[in-house]
Design a protein that fits this description.
Largest sheet: 7 strands, mixed
Mean pLDDT: 95
Distance between the termini: 42 Å
CATH topology of the domain at 45-175 and 214-254: Rossmann fold
Strand content: 15-25%
CATH superfamily of the domain at 45-175 and 214-254: Vaccinia Virus protein VP39
Shape: globular
Oligomer: single chain
Strand order of the largest sheet: 3-2-1-4-5-7-6
Structural class: alpha/beta
Low-confidence stretches: none
Bound molecules: S-adenosylmethionine
Helix content: 25-40%
């Protein structure tokens, strides 16, 4: 990441649903920048991200005629991969995002668009309670966390899952505890030197509140919340080749 990209990453750090609406319409930005990523974190890398998503949600390509929901698809190559998999398998896909993001995605008979944010738009999904086979929510949850309590979001999304295997991947969740563990390692110190361009050790910041950030407590509370609601849930690692695998992880949920 060069200095300009580090500046962008700082500017993108505090995005909100409303902030993304403004980015979505910016003709001067790349499609990766419009979803809040410097190019180096996404250009040429979304194929590998999709490979990980389909490995974690095998029904997407193993079965036909499913109902799929993407919460916060954005407008880069990743939703294109997901939409193509749905077309190939005869699935219906429902895309929930802002009108500005949705306008950048294709229209087709198997694609339904619902203007978000989720779960405020849940009434438009009411007929889908217990009817959704696959939910993808990738690189979105930290913006929901910044906007308000998470359990309402999780409860509403879980309510859509079909009994007998309906699965949801809440992917690419930043975890401040994981980042601290990494920064305290030799690999983390080398990464920090490379990232900052400075010859100094990182300060991991153990035993401090994770103000404004998701951490182990938040992720594990989501696992506990899901399990208490009768939905199996696991925290999963990302493959090391993904751009932020050293500080982000995924939540996989499946309704028995
Ligand atoms: C970082 S982008 C990720 C886009 C895509 N999932 C990906 O990983 O390439 C976050 C997306 O989530 C959307 N978003 C943020 N909060 C949302 C919410 N509560 N409901 C639906 N979409 C939301 C934003 O508009 C944006 O398109």
């Amino acid at each position: 990441m060069n200095e300009e990209e580090r500046r962008q990453a700082r500017a993108f750090a505090d995005l909100s649903y409303e902030g993304f609406r403004e980015l979505a319409g910016r003709a001067d930005l790349s499609r990766y920048q419009r979803i809040g990523f410097p190019d180096s974190l996404r250009a040429g890398r979304e194929g590998a991200i999709f490979d990980d998503i389909r490995a974690k949600l095998p029904a997407l390509e193993a079965r036909r005629g499913l109902t799929v929901l993407d919460i916060g698809p954005g407008c880069s190559d990743l939703p294109a991969h997901i939409i193509e998999a749905c077309r190939a398998q005869g699935h219906e896909i429902i895309l929930v995002d802002s009108p500005e993001m949705l306008a950048a995605l294709p229209d087709a008979p198997f694609i339904r668009k619902i203007e978000g944010p989720f779960p405020d738009c849940a009434p438009a999904l009411a007929g889908l309670s217990g009817q959704v086979d696959v939910v993808v929510c990738y690189s979105v949850l930290h913006y929901v966390f910044a906007a308000g309590p998470l359990f309402g979001f999780l409860d509403a999304a879980m309510g859509l899952l079909r009994p007998g295997g309906g699965a949801m991947l809440i992917g690419d969740v930043p975890n401040a505890s994981m980042r601290r563990r990494f920064l305290a390692s030799a690999a983390g110190a080398a990464f920090h030197r490379h990232y900052t361009g400075r010859d100094e050790d990182p300060v991991p910041g153990f035993n401090q509140p994770s103000e404004g950030e998701m951490d182990d407590a938040v992720l594990l509370s989501l696992v506990a919340r899901a399990r208490a609601a009768g939905v199996d849930a696991w925290v999963l690692p990302q493959p090391p080749e993904l751009p932020m695998a050293n500080r982000r992880e995924d939540l996989l949920l499946r309704r028995p």
